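Bench log, entry 3. Co-assembly request; chain sequences pasted below exactly as received.
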Amino acid sequence: MKICLLTSRPSAAIQLVYYAQTRGVRFDDVIIVGDGGDKFFIFKEYAQFNGFGLHFVDDPNGVSCIRLLTEIQPDILKIVLTEIIRKPVLDIPKIGTLNTHAAILPRYRGVDTGYWAVLEGEKVGVVEHFVDEGVDTGDIVCQCELEIRPEDTINDIFYRNHYLNKWQVATKALLMIQNGAMNPMPQKPEDGRHYFAMHSKLKQIIKEPREN
Amino acid sequence: MLSDIESLMCRIELKRIYADGNDLMTAEELANASILFMDHSHQTGDLRYLNTALKINDRLRNEGRCLDRFDSIIQGESDSLDSLRDRVMAKK
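Structure output for the full assembly:
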């Protein structure tokens, strides 16, 4: 199975590449949104040492990226992006495109969803889902909830969700697909809510009781 | 299917109508939306509406618009935040 990673957040993505590799998932190609300059030296060295193809594009939805992905013909496209991916890219991978969402779906779609879950006193976690044309509406492959302790600060919660859940869930999903054990769960649009960027005054209210 | 009020909230967020200088809605319309959202948030507990109202209030504050209604808007904002703070502290 050919797995390709497309990222505009290489410092985060390298954590995934490393973690996945230690669990038996190998990325065949990594495409970074960037100019390929010296600041990417860690990824360049890592690619050379581990033998995966490393490519640079200026726009994840642009012509050069579409052309490159069409040449690579991945079975799975794993994305670690800040940009929204459009249909011409989504149509390329044979199995689909995977995204890691740092909140429970379908309840928390959109932006700042970790903050929203904490503010509403709901479960925090990570979901790996297929990407469709909606926002966080694709089929769920797997998810993991985070246990929150009474003494946790907001930073503790987000730190643990990132380092103990995020790449673990992404890797688990890739392993499930690799091993033919995937059973994706469709989301109903009416089951979730779409959240927008949280105002700083609401974020401050979350921080206050956990900091005092 | 989104309700009318949810459609309005999504429109203001997606088109960033709360941002300074955006002219898709007048200051009067934004002030009405803010009051509606704060009231709806208070009644339903859906904090997304308070969130959008806070963004609108920032714009009205920055641009010095709707000054005749601004005191009541800011009072509504303050009451909403105090009430939310109490709820969050109670849960903790």
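Residues 90 and 97 of chain A are 6 Å apart (CA to CA). The mean pLDDT of chain A is 93.
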